Amino acid sequence: MPISLSPTRPKVLIPEKVSPDGLALLKEDFDVDEKKGLSPEELKTIIGEYEALIIRSETKVTADLIKAAKKLKVVARAGVGVDNVDVEAATQHGVIVVNSPSGNINAAAEHTIALMMAVARNIGDADASIKAGKWDRSRLTGIEAKGRTLGIVGLGKVGLTVARIANGFGMRLIAYDPYANANLAAAASVTLKPTLADVLKEADFLTLHTPLIASTRGMIGAAELATMKPTARILNVARGGMIDEDALVAALDAGKIAGAGIDVFTSEPPKPDSSASRLIAHPKVVATPHLGASTREAQENVSIDVCEQVVTILNGGLPRSAVNAPIILQEEYRTLQPFVILVEKMGSLYTQHFLTHRSASGTATKSFRTTFDIIYEGELAGLNTTKPLFAALVKGLLTPITSSDGLNINIVNAELLAKERGILINEQRSRENVEDKPYSSFVTLRARASRSTSAVRSDLSRSNSPSAKRALQSQKQSAEDQDQVIQGFVSGNKPYISRLDRFKGEFVAKGTLLICRNFDSCGKIGFVGSQLGKAGVNIRFMNVAPLHEEENGHGSGSGTEAAGAGGEEGNEALMILGVDGAVGDEVVQSLIGSEGVLEASVINF
Length: 605
Ligand SMILES: NC(=O)C1=CN([C@@H]2O[C@H](COP(=O)(O)OP(=O)(O)OC[C@H]3O[C@@H](n4cnc5c(N)ncnc54)[C@H](O)[C@@H]3O)[C@@H](O)[C@H]2O)C=CC1
Ligand SMILES: O=C(O)C(=O)COP(=O)(O)O
Hints:
The protein has 605 residues and is an alpha/beta fold. Helix content is 35%, strand content 22%.
């Protein structure tokens, strides 16, 4: 396969050891830089070049770093914990943070069990002793796990896996987790306790498996240790800050706790003379340098998991495990993805078609409407989340009028950006039956007029006075008082537009389209075809969209302009032409005038 040397290939930075299995997925389309041992300053200097950053627990992704990362779209954590990432700063800058929520769970659970047995049987001490030439058997007598109580704090993915393995050892299992799933706990033979104190006082082994968050930071301090059995042993393969390291050292010294197996520390690597270093050096402690996830299998899993997500995000798709975005269920994801594309195209069509078009009076730029209704009908109406569709709409609406590399709109920041620009989007769901239609879901985008058509219509139906009715009627006919409508659906995974403004006609939203509004009479198609032919523009397809039935009989909405331009009577239609390549301004201008083309716009999807 030829290798593209294009300088525009997105760049991915990997400042830590990440398994090559996932990186192979990136190398085809992106430039992958593996640069280990960078200082925070060096990282900050180069981060501006990169679209994606893949990290483990060592890289600190601070607000400062994110600010310097002008092109960054994604921070991918090849593991679970994201406490080394300033997720809030990432959200503010529209940077998606993804992780691998289950790739290393088994590794972390098995490491916990390894530490538990190492502490129970004095493995570390025994190993050092025998290597020093001693045969010290009586001092190194241990205890058995069987029949002892394992207290689990945090009964999530790792906690439950530890429970299942420990159950096989014949241990009694208790846990404290106020948010735990009671059915899963019962199925793993775990008794949930109402308070942490209940677990602390009964545990022979205490193991921590919560994230490091405000409610868990320092959760095991001197006061908690004082309530535990003096024969108890503590395990921590979660995060350093959850145990007060100085308090644990003091409890071990005082014989209030029998031992500890610790994989994670408040400073990693531990600074000399820090509380972490004192804990590691303690003879009753078995310590490992954050090895919970360090198995070949786990590293393969997390690497493939996050690299796949990086590929998806850099190709404009939605990740499956974004930390700073709503979670999309897998089955919903499959339903949503083609509609994400459709809705983005509908938004983009709105901005390109309604805002800038050519007419006899030159190029007109209409003001951007700020209140939109988006109505989901059919299957889409039953979805739990339509957040990605909302984001796609904001992206579609704004991308044509903003510099594309300056605006990075995604599910994370779409709401904020819409708000900043004063755009109000009302999402509505309609259970209307689409069974007789060739599609299962249908989307309507309605840009509300300053005074919406529906409001004028309801005023019309309520008004008894003929003069008031006439006034309202003329108000309704003004283009600025018309809601602007785009409708679409997905069929065969392709995004179709089925209504554009007052016209109905199906066309695929793809490539470059030339859209002409003209009188629906003979000769127009030939005229446009010959003008484009003269300009060397190849026509891929052509469609005529007549007035939508709602509009027939209501007159031709923007009648003033129609009469002024051509002076012809009768209905209007849209001519939609799929063309190859660019259509220059002069070509568009040549179409408008006496031959009856009233307006034209060029849309690039
Ligand atoms: N040492 C290592 O290499 C590894 C460490 N980890 C760490 O292990 C920890 C657990 O990971 P997972 O099981 O995947 O997370 P998880 O999110 O599946 O489970 C966490 C559990 O903690 C519970 N929890 C939250 N706040 C709590 C509180 N105040 N008190 C009691 N329970 C609380 C939650 O309800 C949840 O059930 C994380 O800190 C993660 O970063 C994970 C993998 C490898
Ligand atoms: O996944 C986690 O939360 C871990 O702690 C693993 O960290 P690591 O990727 O081994 O630096």
